[in-house]
Amino acid sequence: MTGAGDTNHEGVVGNGYLAGAGWVVAAHGELDQDTLAPLEEALAAAADQHRMVVLDAGSITFGDSSFLNLLLRLHRLTTLRIAAPGEQLRRLFALTGADTVLSLHPSVEDAVDGS
Prior knowledge:
The structure is a single chain. The chain is α/β, with parallel strands linked by helices. The protein has helices at residues 37-49, 65-77, 87-96, 108-113; strands at 17-19, 22-31, 52-63, 79-83, 103-105.
C-alpha cells in the first residue's frame, strides 16, 4: 500500500500536499475502471490521515461511472471537496444528480477554504 505522501501513482495522480486543514490529491487524464486504482489508493490513504480531502480535478479529461462511484464512496467516509472540475465532469455530475451530493468548488483554494 502507498501512503498519502507517495508520488508513484502510475501517471494519473500527481503529488499530494497539505493545504489548510486538508490534503489535496491532484489527478489528471482519463479516469475509468482501467486507470482508477492509483487514484483510489491515493484518496483512501488521504482519507485515513486527514479529515478533509480535496480532489484537484482541473486536469481530469474524462471520468466514467466507476470514477463517480469512487467519489460517492469516499464522500461517505470523509469530507470530500472536488476542485475545478472541467466541463465533462460537471456534465457527469449534473446528469447523475451527483452535483447535489458532492461538494464542488471552482478552485483548490475555494475548496480548501470551503467557499
